[in-house]
Design brief:
With about 750 residues, the chain is mainly β. Helices cover about 0% and strands about 55% of the residues. A five-stranded mixed β-sheet has the order 3-9-8-5-6, with no helix packed on it. A five-stranded mixed β-sheet has the order 11-17-16-13-14, with no helix packed on it. The longest helix is centred in the last third of the chain and has 5 residues, at about 750. It is globular, with a radius of gyration of 30 Å.
Length: about 750
């Protein structure tokens, strides 16, 4: 890696911090924290007030000597942000960070490295950032451990001695563990001690970070609209909450009778939105909204809502109709909307009819669930001003009320409520046996719950978990009690999904449901969840040819077997002719989501470009739509990209923001010494990662910030077989062109002679 032993290793982050809305008169540097120990310190350096897209030189100066220098370009807001970590060989003392342009120092700031306090432990712990408010994501890096060894990581609050985090982790091939943790309201602020222990309970590494005390809440409530007709959806928007506040909004009539209680959890920015689906028969009048913290019953804020007197019915024969209000003579005609049926089992069709629109008027239908938009579409009225829209709920939808709002150019229109009902399900208070095809509703007990699933060898099992009260995670164990796979988030959603997973043996598989890993304290987390277990059919797929597909409400997802070989590079593209908004998911043989894409292809179609596989296996490709129930057809094409073999000589690799990853392959024998030569032909990258694997096992890895003109990487093969070399770039840069070749100095037999 091209840096001085006294230099600081800097990693340019992908996310740039918007600190100011406009450039300052002079650049400014902020360093957090301002002190840290040598070899373990991680600091954040933020430079603001530059002109947009300006290239400057950043230098670290120690004892009047420049120990690090790099050219960086500001973003469109004139800002540069990066993280610096002290490396081996750095000396304690004061370091100056200065920003130069054309040799002139524009700004400077200092930080201090202190002498390292050797605790005599083999492992090392660093945390970034070392201090932050509740809701801050702290990256904990643990190094100098034994490779592929299991350790227990525990985080304890110094003041209260409450354990906020305790989990087992396995170190990678370099003896490193990296985890992300965050604190929520209720966790103990102040210093947090990190202890890493081996299987025998011996302490092997320790460290600490600090959680700032939560700021005072400054809650603001906005009710939109503040006056509405009965049956209309009302949004309650909250800001100024504490991060992850679990809050309730109690809506009460003028005589103090509660009408409805809504609950939500604030984001780490202290924001939350609740939706009140008022009933059609809600009496007119003034209603109060009382906002409280659920855990402590602390009153936070209040607001009012006015329900208007009922407007004249536009069409008495329309079922479950709700109409617009407050139209003037000069405004658009009052429109009405109805839905039939209003409530039905999941999997049913609901027809929404909108009347009294202008002829050929185009409106937007927005479907929200729990305050979040889950589906949008546009429709145009016929020559009598009427629209019919069919919505079909699918197995992946949650039970509850969905608000369907009609949005007109002149403003909000009528809305209706669609109620999705799940089939009768079983409550689980203790482990029970479920069969594919069942829907199980359960309750966390002491922060977890267990469910046994009876399955037969050869089945493709799909397990989906959903919860409203907490962010769920799921672990599946085989009949012998070994963990097969773990899922936290799937398809960019917080709910986990496992599979389709091909069951290799008959028996009872155990599913454990728990809260997603976080800096939760030991207090019990409660909440209901739902588990859907079903088997799916998996079709075969051909390479290098177009395959027709059709999706509809009865078949919202299609699954294909995708057999690959070591070193395969595939491009998978969808073409629906603009008819569908397609999504693709790639599932590994253990049921874990390997890749996901929504709009990577043309229009709203999905595409995987240059997918790389380092082992021979059969994956599952899932094809569906964004709405989950759209009808349409198209074609799917799977293309094997040319794979370069280094036995054929040097090959050219071009990496860019469009193609960030590529590979080459070669065959090697055990104990053979190899030199992988990289020659830079053009360009450069912020970070380059090079890995060599054999059947999924990593045999060599290397990373660098920037690439020297010539980079030889030597390593010895631990066994014989096909080697896959993957080159991947990180960061936003101009890209790079590399010549990659293989040198075989000698074999083990040569060395013996």
């Amino acid at each position: 890696m091209p840096y001085s032993t006294r230099a600081l290793f800097c990693i340019l982050l992908l996310s740039l911090f918007a600190l100011f809305s406009a450039a300052q008169d002079a650049p400014a540097i902020s360093i957090t924290p301002e002190t840290g120990e040598v070899e373990t310190a991680l600091i954040m350096i933020e430079i603001s007030g530059l002109e947009a897209q300006t290239t400057v030189t950043i230098e670290f100066v120690f004892a009047d000597e420049v120990v690090f220098s790099s050219e960086e370009t500001s973003d469109d807001d004139g800002q540069i942000s990066f993280q610096a970590g002290s490396t081996e060989g750095d000396l304690p003392g004061a370091y100056t960070v200065q920003v130069l342009r054309d040799g002139e120092v524009l700004a400077s700031a200092e930080f201090e490295l202190t002498a390292r306090q050797d605790d005599g432990l083999p492992g090392q712990v660093s945390v970034s950032p070392a201090q932050g408010p509740i809701g801050t994501v702290h990256t904990v890096a643990i190094t100098a451990l034994e490779p592929q060894t299991q350790y227990t990581v525990a985080i304890t609050a110094d003041e209260t001695l409450i354990v906020g985090y305790r989990r087992q982790h396995t170190s990678d091939d370099d003896g490193a563990i990296e985890i992300e943790v965050f604190a929520e309201v209720g966790d103990s602020p102040g210093p947090q001690a990190i202890a890493v222990r081996d299987d025998e309970g011996e302490l092997v590494a320790q460290g600490e970070f600090t959680i700032d005390a939560p700021p005072e809440r400054d809650v603001a409530v906005v009710v939109q609209p503040p006056a509405a007709q009965a049956g209309q959806a009302i949004e309650i928007q909250l800001t100024g909450l504490a991060p992850f506040d679990h809050i309730s909004a109690v809506i009460m009539s003028a005589d103090g009778e509660p009408v409805e209680t809504l609950t939500a959890r604030a984001s780490n920015a202290g924001e939350a939105t609740l939706t009140f689906a008022s009933s059609d028969d809600l009496p007119p009048g003034a209603y109060s909204i009382d906002i409280r913290v659920i855990d402590t019953d602390e009153a936070l804020a209040s607001a009012t809502l006015e329900i208007l007197a009922e407007a004249p019915a536009a069409d008495e024969e329309a079922p479950n109709e709700q109409t617009e209000s407050n139209d003037t003579d000069d405004g658009p005609a009052v429109a009405s909307a109805g839905i039939e049926p209003q409530s039905a089992l999941i999997g049913s069709s609901h027809v929404i009819t909108v009347r009294d629109l202008a002829p050929d008027e185009t409106v937007t239908f927005n479907v929200t669930f729990e305050g979040k938009s889950v589906y949008r579409t546009e429709k145009t009225a016929d020559d009598v001003g009427m629209i019919r829209l069919e919505l079909v709920t699918t197995a992946g939808d949650k039970a509850g009320d969905y608000i369907v709002s009609v949005m007109r150019e002149a403003g909000a229109g009528p809305s209706v409520t669609l109620t999705a009902i799940r089939e009768a399900a079983s409550d689980i208070s203790s482990p029970l046996v479920a069969s594919p095809g069942e829907v199980i509703r359960g309750q966390l007990i002491n922060g977890s719950a267990a469910l046994d699933i009876a399955a037969q060898a050869g089945q493709y099992l799909l397990i989906e978990v959903s919860a409203d009260d907490f962010d769920p995670a799921a672990t599946l164990y085989d009949p012998d009690g070994f963990a097969i796979t773990f899922s936290d988030d799937s398809r960019l959603r917080k709910d986990p999904s496992i599979g389709p997973l091909r069951v290799t043996e008959s028996g009872q598989y155990a599913l454990e449901v728990s809260p997603s890993p976080s800096m939760n304290s030991r207090r019990v987390i409660e909440g209901e969840f739902t588990v859907t277990v079903r088997t799916v059919s998996v079709a075969s797929i051909a390479y290098d040819g177009e395959i027709d597909f059709a999706l509809n409400a009865d078949a919202p997802t299609i699954y294909y077997e995708l057999p690959v070989e070591t070193g395969d590079s595939l491009t998978i593209s969808i073409d629906s002719g603009g008819e569908l908004d397609t999504m693709m998911q790639l599932i590994a043989p253990d049921g874990f989501e390997l890749a996901f894409d929504d709009d990577g292809g043309a229009g709203f179609d999905a595409e995987f470009s240059n997918l790389i596989f380092d082992r021979t296996a059969t994956y599952i490709l899932a094809l569906t739509t964004f709405s989950g129930d759209a009808s349409g057809s198209g074609t799917i094409r799977v293309t094997r990209n040319p794979v370069r073999a280094l036995e054929d000589g040097a090959t050219i690799i071009n990496l860019s923001d469009k193609l960030i990853r590529d590979l080459v392959i070669f065959d090697a024998v055990a104990d053979e010494m190899l030199i992988l030569n990289l020659e830079k032909l053009d360009g450069d990258v912020e970070d380059l990662f090079v890995t060599a694997t054999m059947e999924g096992m990593e045999v060599m890895s290397y990373s660098t910030m920037g690439v020297p003109d010539d980079l030889p990487l030597a390593f010895v093969m631990p066994m014989s077989g096909r080697v896959v070399v993957t080159l991947e770039k990180f960061g936003q840069d101009d890209g790079i062109s590399l010549s990659v070749s293989l040198e075989r100095p000698c074999t083990s037999a040569d060395r013996e002679h």
